[in-house]
Amino acid sequence: MANHIPSGLLEASVVVGASSERLREVFQEQLQGKLRELPLLEAEVLQVHAPPFVSKETVSNGQSHTPAFTRAQKRRSFKKKRERPVVSANDVAKSNETAVPITEDLSVPKDIDVIALPQLCFPEGLRIASESKEDSYHFLVFTDVFGNQSHGVVVQFYRPIHDGGMVHNGHWSAKNPRLYSAYVVCVISKYPYYSALRDCLSCVLSQLKTCRFAELEERVKEFSAKLALVPVPPPGQLHVVFTFKPLQIVLPSREDKDRPAVDHDLHLPFLCFQPEQVLQIITAILTEQRVVFFSSDWAKLTLMAECFMLFIYPLHWQHPYVPLLSGGMLDFIMAPTAYLMGCHVNHLEEVAAETDDLVLIDVDSGTVSSSDLDLPEIPQAARNCFLSRTAGLQFHYDLELCHLGSSIDMNDLRAQRRQWQLRLNTEILQVSLELIVNIFREVQDHLNYEHRVFNHEEFLRSREPTDHTFYQKVLDTHIFHSFLRDRLNRKMDAFHHMERKTRSEAQKWRTDVLRRPPMQEMARKYNGPENRLSKRLGMSLPNLLDEKAFTLQVRRTSLKTMSLERNGFKIPQKPVKTFKLPEFPPPLSYHYVQNYYAELINLLGRAVALATPEDSALLARYYYLRGLVNSVTGKRLDAIGDFQNLYKTDTDIFPAELVNSLVDTLSPDERAQADRRSELKRLISKVKKDHEAQPNDRGGSVKKFELPRTHMQLEDFVRRVQESGIVKDQGTIGRLFEALTVGQQKQVDPDTFRFFYTFWKETEAEAQDVDLPTAVLENLEANECVYKISSSVKTSHGVGKIAMTQRRLFLLTEGRPGYVEVTKFRDIEEVRISSSPFLLTRVNSLKIKRSLRKEWFEANLKSECDLWCLMIKEMWAGRKMADDHKDPQYMQQALTNALLMDAVVGCLQSQKAIYAASKLAYFDRMKSEVPMMVPKTTSETLKHKINPSVDLTSPQAVDVLLYTPGQLGVVDTEGGGNPKLWCALSDGKVVVFDAASWSTLQNGLQVGTARLNCMLGVNQHQLWIGSQDSVIYIINPRSVSCNKQLTEHRSEVTGLALEERSDKYSPLVAYSCSVEGTVTMWDVPTLQVKRQFRLSCDRLQSIQVHSGSLWCCARDSLMEVSRTGTMLRRMALPEHLRDTLTSYSSFLLIPEKEQLWTACADVGELCLWHVHSRNRPFHKIPLPDCAGVACMIRVKNQIWVGSHSQTLGKCRGKIYVVNTEQPCVEKELVAHTDRIQALCSAEDRYVLSGAAREDGKVAIWKVD
């Protein structure tokens, strides 16, 4: 748990070298002429320096205060030989005492393996040299048993052996050559800041090489203490800068909390390997091979391995990872498991000869080879895209400098190079992420989120045959299993965002699990990489409307244009801010360190004050750093206060574990002070509650789909079918259960289920193998799919096979293949079966009457006749329902029913098969039992329907709707500039639609776990959502992410309102109310409470702002209140309703007409009041056949009223359009099968209505 607590830059610094005793022995041998060759010495740990470096006992609670950025590290003791006092050669000669080694304990952080560290610091061994050698750097990665990593930067340098006895009679000896010994300083950090730590070591190295040996420990300790003063920046776009003279060091932040910081050159692999070889290495990692890197340069090994670990993100290597092995560790290569290791190129032939099944990567020669191992190729489409992307990258910095002059400032040169590298690293990460997305994009199509099942076989079957070998190897790896767990947890990581940005239009329209490729796509599936990338887009049901998808005609407020880079690679670089730390103080003095922290807190306070409220992301990072510094200095309450502000500003980077540990260390007096501050008390309560509720398992399990082995009752059958991916809807599965259990006990045996599942999959595969001639394809729509083909039959249009798509029936003529259209489903007038004589018997034939032709179409389908009749009738009924109700999902459901009929008949193969299949004829039965006519007024006004619950197992109530217009000048590959429709469903789920195309932008943004009551578009950067859990969640409309919360309310938040500004310089103010009567006034830019008061009423449920006054609606009254909370007037229920059990449900104020419209929950009328009248309404507008009103909105000169009626015990949603000029009902609209709960307007041109659970859909209405 402690590994999740933020720490500083330094974990520890370790000095490694040969002991002084051994160096004296070597020197004596040289003096005596016995040293014939320079020996190889044993390296050992000489010094360990770890925070804290200064401390002071506190008086108040006796706790030791250690001001350093460090986790509470467990330490252990490590015994080393204590160095003797420094002596001269004469002293050694005079002494006759036997050298007795004296030991002492070093306090070592628990995570550091000091036993193996000397070998890793001197991978070639420690050798005495006759001349000083060039300094060298290399890098280390340490991984503990839990997978937590630490990173080391090692500098190896040489010092003359004079302290060990090279001084003779006070003078240097000229007779004997000077000897040099290698030393290492290894700086260890929890973060991979390889370049920054290398630069820090470079700044101090000259001092370490020239100082006296007695001073070396103090110099290293001082250097380490300075690094311990450096805080690590939080994820985001704020980098930390500090000065290590003469260099300015930059610590880049992580891009997000799930990714490590990138502080090395990611283009190194592309300088050493061709892009095809880079793909080979990525393949070896994804398939979990035993991978070994080789190089003559130790530094390249770790940097190269770290690059590839970033290239496979968000997948994470799950096996041993030792990118640098010393010569004494080569036996690790014999490990039987998968691993990634690195060693010197001198061992290449030895390793290759000793071990089989290795992937050998020679960094120096740029070759990739494998012994007895055939690596599969990455899927062709993803491969080609990657090669195309990398061809456009500029890997050579010198080419960037051609047009620039020379700078004489070293830090300017470094900053220029850093900016170039930052841009290139970002581009490389985008290319590699796009590669991973292209490989695994369609994994989510084969996941069942409810039961956490991945349909392994079905996914593999959906891949290109040439890619099967690759996927067979990848799907069973630990790395892929971890990736699946994240997908099932709906993790909103970089993979998720890239996948959304690179979706094609067809993928955006995915609405069902019926997997059939469009025929035109099948025809060109071998043409090129772009087409192959989207080969399977038709596996999910496409848009089923014959016309183009209904598009909301909104005003074009966005300048967004579609470019050739639509597929999500060229993304504008986010602006980077830097925060410069103060100059380092003497780091071993408690007083100076405290002053340094005080100055740092002041600088951060100044940055907080200067940050504009619009740049809340930057403000959050300043709060984070200040909270971190306050926690280090022992100001725990101030730290918790900063983290409270951070929590309101950006919950994504909230350090919950650190805050929890701070709370645990509060003294009784501090805890009492925190409890007196309500906002801190709430934060502490939430943090402790969340900490106690943390699950034990890491993200949940992942199951493979398996066929059942026992008999299934309905509940188990529903689960199995959902896991299989055939269909999700519980109602459809219930009808399938009835079909498979006709005439028997109500349970499905495993053999029946297996036959059914096999037939379904075989039929699906057959449909994907249909190869239609070009002449036929020209007659089909671009997204049409063939779902069913009959055997060859005689028809009234000739001999051929009847084919069924989601739109039509057509005949594939035999002989010379041709296309003869039979009918579109919407043109059918009658379908029936008749028998006709054939030789000595009678043959059943299918007859179809069409509206566009006089003659009947007849086909002698023989034994298939009954099934085709059922399927066509269901498709015909579904088409009519879809057209009448402007709801394409009816057609999707009808198609699902028809294909399930086919599978049931194929599975049962008995006389009862057709009767069983008829159980699935849902729409045909509806057509027979219930009149399908839609009132003319409704049909003319209704434009379209969408289903927010399409990916759920059952419909969910639409609780709130909000339309947000497009944003001027926004260019965003996720449709950030387009208008959006926000649908709040049950239990905190929000579905977001692109209102320009009605494709789903975000399917299942989770906003808490409670019911959502209200939404408010505050500005282009904030959308507020009030929840039943008393929290106001703040969404970024562009990124569709929630990372801010307002927690000042104590009860259910029921209403939100925004006050119009008199001019652009006026402060933006919002209001919220909660059910117990509290009204809160907010300053929007700062998210601070400006005022709060409480009203006495029965369930306060909405709030509006008009002319500087607040109008509040409670169950028992309407109240006009001043901004200060003064009650100006209260309007009780109308007299004729006071004796009933009803209550106010909604109201509208029309200030220019001084009208107030009210509605009640259980009364079918509207009341119209004069604003200044308190007594009674002057007009009542009855609503015919209305059982109660839920909501009202004003659109132009109309009021749209959302209500419900009760007919024969069934609830239906109704909308009444009321004219405000002549108060009367103009229209009655009926299009929902459950009560209407939400209404919103789209720029006064359309109205959108959302219904309760039994319906769960959103209807789009045109405004006159």
UniProtKB/TrEMBL annotation:
The lineage of its organism: Eukaryota, Metazoa, Chordata, Craniata, Vertebrata. GO terms for biological process: regulation of Rab protein signal transduction. Gene3D superfamilies: 3.30.450.200, 3.40.50.11500, YVTN repeat-like/Quinoprotein amine dehydrogenase (2.130.10.10). The keyword Transcription does not apply. InterPro entries: cDENN_dom (IPR001194), dDENN_dom (IPR005112), DENN_C (IPR043153), DENN_Domain_GEFs (IPR051696), TPR_DENND3 (IPR057977), Tripartite_DENN (IPR037516), uDENN_dom (IPR005113), WD40/YVTN_repeat-like_dom_sf (IPR015943). GO terms for molecular function: guanyl-nucleotide exchange factor activity. Keywords: Guanine-nucleotide releasing factor. One of its GO terms (cellular component) is cytoplasmic vesicle. This is DENN domain-containing protein 3. Pfam families: DENN, TPR_DENND3, uDENN, WD40. Residues 84-494 form the UDENN domain. Residues 57-67 have a biased composition (Polar residues). Residues 56-76 are annotated as: Disordered. The keyword Ion transport does not apply.
